[in-house]
């Protein structure tokens, strides 16, 4: 858990926005645009990375552009005591993009991708083809009108 002292401030928010909009920008150019010293930008980046606020600078890859245009979410019910083994199994499936443990109906929520609806059956069969998974319920995503985003949350956090 983070303390209130871990909150991002306005400069952190501006830096995160700049890096999100232009991920290949250098520290020197960031300092020029934000009108702060290069050392300040570097110290802020180091602190944000150390705290886990910034987790990486890798490219955003679109699964559809890789040939996986179908996205689905599967809610999985697992056998008691099988969580570690199910996690390992799901980690070995390349089409599994995310795994969350959840409350409510089911135990895990998995985001998966496939090359087609027919290929989705293959992926689901691979996902559920494990003794620790008792039941699965799958929903196909039709569109993604609000894709994963973080900047509105960063802006709100930097104002608090």
TrEMBL record:
Signal peptide: none annotated. It comes from the Bacteria. Keywords: DNA-binding, Transcription, Transcription regulation. Coiled coil: none annotated. SMART domains: HTH_ASNC. Pfam families: AsnC_trans_reg, HTH_AsnC-type. Residues 8-69 form the HTH asnC-type domain. PANTHER family: LEUCINE-RESPONSIVE REGULATORY PROTEIN, TRANSCRIPTIONAL REGULATOR AZLB. This is Lrp/AsnC family transcriptional regulator. It comes from Kitasatospora paranensis.
């Amino acid at each position: 858990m983070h303390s209130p002292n871990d909150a991002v401030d306005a400069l952190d928010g501006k830096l995160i926005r700049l890096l999100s909009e232009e991920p290949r920008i250098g520290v020197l150019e960031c300092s020029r645009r934000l009108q702060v010293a290069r050392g300040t930008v570097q110290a802020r980046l180091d602190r944000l990375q150390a705290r886990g606020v910034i987790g990486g600078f890798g490219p955003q890859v679109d699964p559809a552009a890789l040939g996986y245009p179908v996205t689905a979410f599967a809610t999985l019910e697992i056998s008691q005591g099988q969580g570690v083994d199910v996690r390992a199994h799901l980690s070995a499936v390349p089409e599994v993009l995310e795994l969350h443990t959840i409350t409510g109906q089911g135990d895990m929520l998995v985001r998966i991708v496939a090359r087609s609806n027919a290929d989705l059956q293959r992926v689901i069969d691979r996902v559920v083809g494990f003794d620790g998974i008792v039941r699965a319920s799958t929903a196909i995503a039709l569109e993604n009108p609000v894709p994963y985003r973080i900047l509105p949350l960063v802006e709100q956090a930097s104002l608090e």
